[in-house]
Design a protein that fits this description.
The protein is 78% helix and 0% strand. The chain is an all-alpha fold. It has one domain. Helix 2 packs antiparallel against helix 3 and helix 4 packs parallel to helix 6.
């Protein structure tokens, strides 16, 4: 993953950030609060793990900015920054306290940057096979629509909750996340280097469907908060570190 970088210092730095991210995320889970709670992981370790990924993403950009992978790295770095803002909004660390709609908007903007990065990558590298690209996109959009219907809309109705504005805002958001997964899958079908990118995008959608169920439909189970983060955190990491595979692709 790191062999396409120019110097050992760059490799060690990005590997080190990966280790710190894993220690914050998984260490926060292992050494967190009481196991009976909905979440063991403390808020500070969750926010810090996302902040480390922002640093990693901009480090990738700094190391690749003079290569054809630089544009992709910058778009991913900006997308990850909006992801961190979304985390802070949902955790209540921004002025005004917890703001679900602001969090959704931040994540949605982040994914628009991810989508733009993938579209530009596909155009630049010739990974534009129509069946792979549009077929994967169509399938994932259907998955996103079905997930929103079952988890958010039907889930709310089943619990006697009248769907409100935020439930309907969740629909285009789910479709944006599904589009990210679809485009990533399209890339992976044409170049196996991007399988981990596709996995990351799929995990992000899964994590957000669980989160939507918790917030909008009253879904609950033991350690649900940790399940959300143990899918979301690796999802963001795989998207950020996909820059390595882009660099390998353009340097071949």
């Amino acid at each position: 993953m790191f062999l396409s970088l120019s110097t050992p210092v760059q490799r060690y730095w990005l590997i080190g950030l990966l280790i710190v991210w894993a220690a914050l995320l998984f260490g926060g889970f292992i050494f967190g609060g009481a196991p009976e709670a909905a979440r063991r992981m403390p808020a500070w370790s969750r926010m810090a793990s996302s902040a480390v990924l922002v640093v990693a993403a901009f480090s990738w950009y700094a190391f690749t900015r003079h290569t054809p992978a630089g544009a992709y790295a910058l778009l991913v770095a900006i997308g990850m920054t909006f992801g961190l803002l979304g985390d802070l909004a949902l955790a209540g660390f921004l002025p005004g306290g917890r703001n679900v709609i602001a969090g959704i908007i931040s994540f949605g903007i982040g994914h628009i940057f991810y989508i733009t990065a993938m579209l530009r990558l596909a155009a630049a590298t010739g990974l534009t096979n129509p069946p792979a690209r549009w077929g994967a996109l169509a399938i994932w959009l259907l998955v996103g629509l079905a997930g929103w219907y079952l988890v958010v809309l039907r889930g709310a109705n089943a619990r006697g909750i009248t769907p409100g504005v935020v439930h309907w805002i969740a629909l285009p958001y789910a479709l944006v996340l599904a589009a990210t997964a679809g485009l990533a899958t399209g890339l992976a079908l044409q170049d196996s280097r991007f399988i981990l990118l596709a996995l990351g995008a799929a995990l992000f959608l899964l994590s957000d469907l669980i989160l939507a169920g918790e917030m909008f439909s009253g879904m609950t189970f033991r350690l649900i908060g940790d399940v959300i983060w143990l899918t979301y955190g690796p999802a963001q990491m795989l998207i950020v570190y996909s820059i390595a595979h882009v660099l390998a692709r353009v340097n071949r």
